Amino acid sequence: MMISNLPMPAEAQTQPGQGLHVLTLTPFYPVLGDDGRGCFVAEPLTWVEQLGVMNTVLAVQPFYRGRARNGDSALPARWNHFFTFPGGLGLPTSGAFLYAQIRSEVRRLHRANPVQIIHAHSALPCGQAATLFSQEL
Question: First and final CA of the chain: distance in angstroms?
C-alpha cells in the first residue's frame, strides 16, 4: 500500500475525534453461500477500520438477480438493486438509476456522519452513481 505525504484536502478532513467516513459502492461483495464473491473488497475493510476509518458499504446487483443476503464478512453491506437487463441492455444509464434509488439513503448517511470519500468498484453502475454523488455532496 502506498501512503502519500501530501496534505489531505480541506474537504476530506474530519472534525477532531471523528474518523474518516468512506462510502463504498460495489457490485462485488460476499453473499450467503459465496463468501469468495467480492472478498477482495470486504477483507481490507476490517483492517482499515482499525485505523479509525468508518466504512459504509452499499452493495448492488441487477434487479433480475433477486435478493442478496450478506455472507460472513465482518462488515455487512446494505444491498440495493439497480435497473438493467441481461446482456447489458440499459447498462449505460444504470448508474443514474442507482443514484436515484439510493439518493435518500446516502443523504441520510451523509447527514449523520459526513462522507469524505466515495470508493466505487466498477464504472457502471457504481462509478457513475459516485460521480453524481460527488457533485451533490
Answer: 27
